[in-house]
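Sample pair:
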Amino acid sequence: MKTTMRAAVCVRAGGPDVLEVRELPIPAVRDGWSLVRVMGAGLNRSELRTRQGHSPSVTFPRVLGIECVGVVADSTDPLLPDGTTVAAVMGEMGREFDGGYAEYALLPNSLLVPVTTTLPWDVLAALPETYLTAQGSLDALGVAPGERLLIRGGTSSVGMAAASIAAGHGVRTAATTRRRDKVDALAVDHVLVDDGGSLAASVRAVWPEGPDHVLDLVGTSTAVDSLRLVRRGGTVCMTGTLSGWLIPDFEPVAMIPSGTRLTAFHSDNLKGGAGASALRRVVREVEAGVYRPNVDRVFDLDDIASAHRRMENNEATGKLVLTP
């Protein structure tokens, strides 16, 4: 076995060019941690923000990547023998310790989810963070077949995954996009173009009584408007942070209509074993054609800076995937 690996190292906070491909020693296994040969890693906006310097707890240099899929190369867990196909997500990957932007990753055994699948690596790599976030958000909303779901930020990877899951379970869907050139990419019942103002007129035109649920992936800038859009007694789930973390001057009593519910979801809730059954279910549904993941583009390790530029410029429609 070789002793070095190629990895994309974030050398400091800054633009995409701070991601440098370097030759690093392959990490040695230690108790409770196993070495994974990374076959694919989905790219996420949280990595973009970490690269920009918005994660104060992260020190540089750091190999980013909060998720990956691959094969166990050197195991310390008898339940995860060498050669096992695994997925890993969150749990401080790419933040407290090096993550998926590398040929190999040393990961806690508790994060590794064994998966049996025939899916190609790029498709499998598009699933863990995105589909677990989408599924967790829909569970937090309590969406049921036949109900009306509005997805704000519909052309994000999580938005497209949520639409795919919802459609597969008979949920009526609408989604927003700020770009008219992405309308055709949305596989929902109704597409609403978001020009930055209130969506009330557009929503009422398709659902006069309003949606039963709103999955808000845009974030704090649209939260209050989403609370006004959902029907009385409906639920809004804040999952996205595209517009930041804080809602300025938020007054819950004044801004949450009586009977309307506001909840949130964070994908770290489904890391490791907590998300194992959900991820395996997602894989089965993708294999069966019930869910249709959207892979926007697959990048080689040498093109990691270009991948981050595409993500930062909001050019992607669906998931960006890295194959080290």
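The chain has nine helices and 16 strands.
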